[in-house]
Amino acid sequence: MQLSKAEEELMNILWKKRRAFMKDLLEGYNEPRPATTTVATLLKRMTDKGFIAYKSFGRAREYYPLVKKKDYFSKHVNGLIKNFFNDSASQFASFFTQETNLSKTELEELKKLIDQEIEKK
Which of 3, 6, 12, 61 has the most crowded CB, counting CB atoms within 10 A? Predict the structure, then answer.
């Protein structure tokens, strides 16, 4: 299951804060902030999708993520590779390195990371 753009924005705030009440989540947004009811609707949807949970303190709820950012991002990238690059990581890497404005230094850093992963295998 995937999050909408609005849900991803809220999820990023929650990943940064780790645990948060409604007021904390609202403070995480840039101006103009969404209405409390909008955030409450997003939280309900995200709870129903199994991305977050909450602990009740009287009438207040403290929300926390059930899905790690790394896991969500990994699934997202793997889906992108499967759907747009014929399930080929090398096609994705070719596109990524050629179509983005990476500097020589950034490309060298990527090469170093790849070399490190090759050594581990």
Answer: 3
